[in-house]
Amino acid sequence: MTSSSSPARKMLSKIACNRLQKELAEWQASPPGGFNYKVSDNLQRWIIEVSGAEGTLYAGEKYQLQVDFPEHYPMEAPQVIFMNPAPMHPHIYSNGHICLDILYDSWSPAMTVSSVCISILSMLSSSPAKERPADNDRYVRNCRNGRSPKETRWWFHDDKV
Amino acid sequence: MRAFLPRTLALLCSQRPGRLELPLARMKVKILQWHAVASWTWDAQDETCGICRMAFDGCCPDCKFPGDDCPLIWGACNHAFHLHCILKWVNSQTSTPLCPMCRREWQFKG
C-alpha cells in the first residue's frame, strides 16, 4: 500500500490555468530580482530559487520555495513553503512553513507569484536575527503527516519583521 | 462604453454637409451615402482585470465574447473588474469581501 504525505490535488480550473500561463510569461519577460524560476512542465507546482539580498543576514545564501496552486487560484492563495533547509528566521519554521499573512487571511486575487516572492524576500531582509520562531518545536510536531500550512490557524502578531 | 469616430470620418463630419472643400483643386464632392465604422472600449483606468489578468476589452476566461456578455463592474472604491471575476471572489469569501486592489470593503457602485 502506498501513502502520500501531500493531500490529493485537484486539477487547475480554466481560470487558474489561464492566469498561471500569463504569470509565467510575465515572469520570464521580467523576473523579480533575486529569484530564479526552475523550469519544469508542471504549471501547478513552481520551484523558485531565492537569493538572500546583499547587505542582509542572508547575503550569499540560496533557498528554494515550493509554490503549489489550488484548483481555484487566484480566488484561493497558493501554498508557499521553503524546501529543506529553510532559512533561520523568526517567522519561518524548520519544516519550511512561513508565517506571513498574505499567504493566508490577507490573500487577495490581485496578488501574483511575483508579488508574493517580493514580500518573502522583504521579510527575510528585515530579519534582526537568525533564529527560529519561539514555538517552532511544538508547531512542527503538530504538523507531522505533511499538514499544509493553509490548515494552520495563524496568529499574526509582529508587523516589524 | 465609449465609441470613437475614426479620424477620416471625424474630418468629413467637420465639413458642411454635402460639401467637402479641398484646399488645392476646387471641386465639389457630394456625399450620397456613407457607412460609419466605430470601435468601442471600456472606460476603465486599467487595461487588464486585476483578478484574471485578461484585457478589459477582451473577456474573462469563462466567456467567449467581450462586451455586454462579459461586462465590467465598478466598486464604490472605483476599482473595476470583470463582473464574473469579482463575483467569484465575493462568493468565495466567508467574511466581508474586500476589494482585491485596495482592501476596502467591496461594494458595487450604485
TrEMBL record, chain A:
Accepts the ubiquitin from the E1 complex and catalyzes its covalent attachment to other proteins. CDD domains: UBCc_UBE2W. This is E2 ubiquitin-conjugating enzyme. It is an enzyme of class 2 (transferase). Its EC number is 2.3.2.23. It comes from the Eukaryota. SMART domains: UBCc. PROSITE patterns: UBC_2. Keywords: ATP-binding, Nucleotide-binding, Transferase, Ubl conjugation pathway. Residues 15-161 form the UBC core domain. It comes from Lolium multiflorum. GO terms for molecular function: ATP binding; ubiquitin conjugating enzyme activity. The keyword ATP-binding applies.
Automatic annotation (TrEMBL), chain B:
GO terms for molecular function: cullin family protein binding; ubiquitin protein ligase activity; zinc ion binding. GO terms for cellular component: anaphase-promoting complex. PROSITE patterns: ZF_RING_2 (PS50089). It is found in: Nucleus. This is Anaphase-promoting complex subunit 11. GO terms for biological process: anaphase-promoting complex-dependent catabolic process; cell division. Pathway: Protein modification; protein ubiquitination. Keywords: Cell cycle, Cell division, Metal-binding, Mitosis, Nucleus, Ubl conjugation pathway, Zinc, Zinc-finger. Residues 60-103 form the RING-type domain. InterPro entries: RING-box_E3_Ubiquitin_Ligase, RING-H2_APC11, Znf_RING, Znf_RING/FYVE/PHD. Belongs to the RING-box family. Its main location: nucleus. It comes from the Eukaryota. Transmembrane segments: none annotated.
